[in-house]
Amino acid sequence: MPRVSNESNPRFTMEIPPLEKARLLRAAALEHTTLKDFMLRNALNAANSVIERAEHIALSERDTEKVLDLLDNPREPNANMVAVLKGRRGN
C-alpha cells in the first residue's frame, strides 16, 4: 500500500537500479555536483516543463491576431448562442 506523503518530512527515498545509479553518479560528477543536487535540479526542470506545457497555450502569430480581432470586433450571437445564454441565466 502506498504511503501518504508527509509534507513536513523533507526526505524522499527511491530505489534506483545499480546501472542507472552509476550513470546518474557519473553525470553528477561531470557537473561537479552531488547526486542529490543533480537529481533535484533535473527533476525540478522536468516538473517546470510539465507544468508549463499543462498551464500555458502558445498561439501562432496568425492565431493571436485572430483572437485579438475577435476581442476588438465580437460577432453577433446566433440563435443557438442566444438560447444557451438564456438557459444559463434561468430566463
UniProtKB/TrEMBL annotation:
| InterPro entries in alphabetical order | Ribbon_hlx_hlx (IPR010985), TacA_1-like (IPR014795)
SUPFAM superfamilies, alphabetically? Ribbon-helix-helix
Q: So which domain of life are we looking at? A: Bacteria
Q: Name one Pfam family in it.
A: TacA1
> Sorted alphabetically, which keywords does the UniProt record give?
Toxin-antitoxin system
Annotated coiled-coil segments of the chain? none
BP-aspect Gene Ontology terms: regulation of DNA-templated transcription
Q: Hey, which family's this protein in?
A: Belongs to the TacA antitoxin family.
Q: Which PANTHER family match?
A: ABC-TYPE TRANSPORT SYSTEM (PTHR35401:SF2), COPG FAMILY HELIX-TURN-HELIX PROTEIN-RELATED-RELATED (PTHR35401)
**Name used for this protein in its record:** DUF1778 domain-containing protein
* Lineage of origin: Bacteria, Pseudomonadati, Pseudomonadota, Alphaproteobacteria, Caulobacterales
